[in-house]
């Protein structure tokens, strides 16, 4: 036997109003429509849902239990609708974005927010590995990373070309150079990122190409911690050129061995992650790419 939402809604309305007429006003339908829905349900299951007492329709014990169940079903329907709207409505939806670097991701997010201010934004930050994993497990709808892993499940849109650069304290002897070499860097105290970082992977490949094996003075998980360590003169660090807009206390130096090594900052998601909000974000990313 099937149980229609319309019949459950009619039973709940009659239980609340105490009459077919009152229920019809609540539902915005005719009185015969309401009474027909209730009687059809009673006939379908062979039960009595209301008793008439003192001119009012009083719900039976069975009806009260049915109304409780129907209310939970209505709440579940509403939650399902909210979930669908959160992924489709450009007026009240939601999107979760994972960033490996603050920039250019934050600039794209800001442009998206200006275009669609009603969409709720959640931003996750972390290592390259963490963000890639979060996209794969649907914890993030979209990620923005350099050097996105090769995976046929990913949809991609390149937004800019990036490169790893060295950052040195502003009073360092190399601060007046226009660029540095891997050999020069290998003789200095170096601050590395943890192994899950795309910066560190790119740096390690560069030193391998140069046939050098420098040992770091310090290894840090967080980009902000690395930046502060450099500012405080602990050594030379490395970052993606566009990963932050900060310039205080450091000098940025291109690395000779990074010339011609093209790495893209890329907006990516699972191909199955679809919807108006995701498409709108890709649209903003494509416009950003042309700026």
TrEMBL record:
Q: Which PROSITE patterns match?
A: HTH_LYSR
Domain HTH lysR-type, chain residue ranges per copy: 1-60
One GO molecular-function annotation for this sequence? DNA-binding transcription factor activity
User: What is the top-level taxon of the source organism?
Assistant: Bacteria
Matching entries from CDD domains are given as: PBP2_LTTR_substrate
Identify the InterPro entries for this entry.
LysR_HTH_N, LysR_subst-bd, WH-like_DNA-bd_sf, WH_DNA-bd_sf
Which keywords are on file for this protein? DNA-binding, Plasmid, Transcription, Transcription regulation
> Record's family?
Belongs to the LysR transcriptional regulatory family.
Put simply, this protein is called Putative LysR family transcriptional regulator
């Amino acid at each position: 036997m099937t149980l229609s939402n319309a019949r459950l809604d009619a039973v709940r309305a009659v239980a609340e109003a105490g009459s077919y007429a009152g229920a019809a006003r609540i539902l915005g339908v005719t009185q015969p429509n309401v009474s027909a829905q209730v009687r059809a349900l009673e006939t379908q299951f062979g039960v009595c849902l209301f008793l008439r007492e003192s001119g009012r329709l009083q719900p039976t014990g069975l009806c009260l239990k049915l109304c409780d169940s129907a209310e939970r079903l209505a709440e579940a329907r509403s939650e399902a609708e909210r979930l669908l709207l959160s992924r489709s409505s450009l007026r009240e939806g939601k999107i979760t974005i994972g960033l490996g670097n603050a920039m250019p991701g934050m600039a794209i997010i800001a442009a998206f927010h200006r275009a669609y201010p009603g969409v709720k934004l959640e931003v996750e930050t972390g290592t390259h590995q963490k963000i890639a994993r979060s996209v794969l497990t649907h914890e993030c709808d979209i990620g923005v990373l350099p050097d996105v892993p090769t995976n046929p499940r990913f949809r991609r849109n390149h937004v800019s070309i990036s490169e790893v650069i060295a950052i040195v304290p502003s009073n360092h002897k190399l601060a007046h150079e226009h660029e540095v070499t891997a050999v020069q860097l290998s003789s200095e105290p170096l601050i590395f990122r943890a192994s899950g970082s795309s910066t560190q992977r790119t740096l390690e490949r560069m030193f391998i190409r140069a046939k050098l094996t420098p040992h770091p003075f310090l290894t840090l998980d967080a980009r902000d911690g690395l930046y502060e360590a450099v500012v405080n003169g602990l050594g030379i660090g490395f970052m993606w050129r566009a990963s932050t807009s900060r310039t205080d206390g450091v000098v940025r130096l291109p690395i000779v061995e990074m010339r011609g090594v093209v790495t893209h900052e890329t907006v990516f998601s699972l191909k199955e992650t679809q919807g108006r909000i995701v498409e709108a974000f890709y649209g903003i990313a494509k416009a950003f790419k042309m700026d």
